Amino acid sequence: MFQILEIDIIDTKYKYFKSPWIFSNQVKHLDDKLLNPEKICLVRLKGTKKIGIYNKTSLISIRLLPDCIMDKVENNSISSEAFIEQLSVYIKKLQIEKNTFAFADKEAYRLSHGDNDGLPALAIDDYKSVLVLQSSAAVGDFLLPYVVEALKRVSDLPIFERSTGQIRKLEQLPERTRWIEKPKTDSSFDISCFFAHLTMSFSLNKAQKTGLFLDQRNNLKYLAELLKTYNIKKSLDICSYAGAWSAIAARSGVSDLTLIDQDAWALQLAQKNVEQNALHTPLIRTLHGDMFEHLQNLNKSTEKFDLIIADPPAFAKAKKNVAEAKRAYTKMTRLAHNLLNENGILVVCSCSRHIEDQDFLESVSLGLSAQNWVLLHKGEQSPCHTRLATPDSSEYLKCYFIKKRVL
């Protein structure tokens, strides 16, 4: 049984609760004696029917839950069973909503994009053979067992947890990589799925994040369409990870592919994914190590490419890293664009939520030479990575397709 405490909001700009969270300086905090050892509890916002999870020790003090939870609240409490049941009802509706985006049949997608989908700090990716779940905060850990029970009621897929990464380290939370609900037969870590017209493979126990970066879906599809009208023979994939960008290129007929990544296992995985999607048997070269060192070495040679993709990990892990990150994007762009052939295409990405879109584009443009550069397309994150209609960090993924035009 959960007791639901009333909490007062002292910042009136949150009157309409358009954001899924409320910060520490915007609430009147509860007494420690009312909280569990982790200083977490369920709360109702005073004067509203909004319910959320309160964490006194976090900068984000309240993270809102789906409104339907309030339907089962009686006398300021809700049973664990009713809480799980309402979560299962909500997740089922979430599945239906995500499927309206008309992804290809049996295509992997993000079921929950954390707070933006009403499941605070919990990302859930559906790979059709397994659900992969990631908790990024203490609130996510609090909610996780109830969401797992709810998932079991709406899906018979096995459930794997990959709660790892920088955010958990910042919150001093342990990393977890484990089966929560094992497959009934083969419990192999190797997964194959369909994504952005590709057949992609990865390993649950070695992958980054939840496995694949499904947020790049629309940008990968755009590249596939773009390659139909360009004579691209040679490509360079910087920070290739599982090789999705190169796999799209190979599937479109590009036969000479170079991939750079600092993870040796990821390069092996990428080569496999490129080969299984290639239109023809490709020539694949993998470069293991620091991207800047390899780019500098390539700049010293006479080698050129028709297509270059630069999709690095987040350079800005926090706001204090923004200035350094902007310089890194400029350096990356400068080194990469020098390797392009005439009329070559450069794709540059940033998944740093602390970098504003305008700042990223400015950093990229500073790295370009004084030649004639044309913006072909501004990419976006897949709609399954839910964006709210609020001016916050919901739109974290930046992706620009740029052409080196020579007329």
UniProtKB/TrEMBL annotation:
<dbReference type="InterPro" id="IPR007848">
    <property type="entry name" value="Small_mtfrase_dom"/>
</dbReference>
<dbReference type="InterPro" id="IPR029063">
    <property type="entry name" value="SAM-dependent_MTases_sf"/>
</dbReference>
<dbReference type="GO" id="GO:0008168">
    <property type="term" value="F:methyltransferase activity"/>
</dbReference>
<keyword id="KW-0808">Transferase</keyword>
<keyword id="KW-0949">S-adenosyl-L-methionine</keyword>
<dbReference type="GO" id="GO:0032259">
    <property type="term" value="P:methylation"/>
</dbReference>
<protein>
    <submittedName>
        <fullName>Class I SAM-dependent rRNA methyltransferase</fullName>
    </submittedName>
</protein>
<feature type="domain" description="Methyltransferase small">
    <location>
        <begin position="222"/>
        <end position="361"/>
    </location>
</feature>
<dbReference type="Pfam" id="PF05175">
    <property type="entry name" value="MTS"/>
</dbReference>
<keyword id="KW-0489">Methyltransferase</keyword>
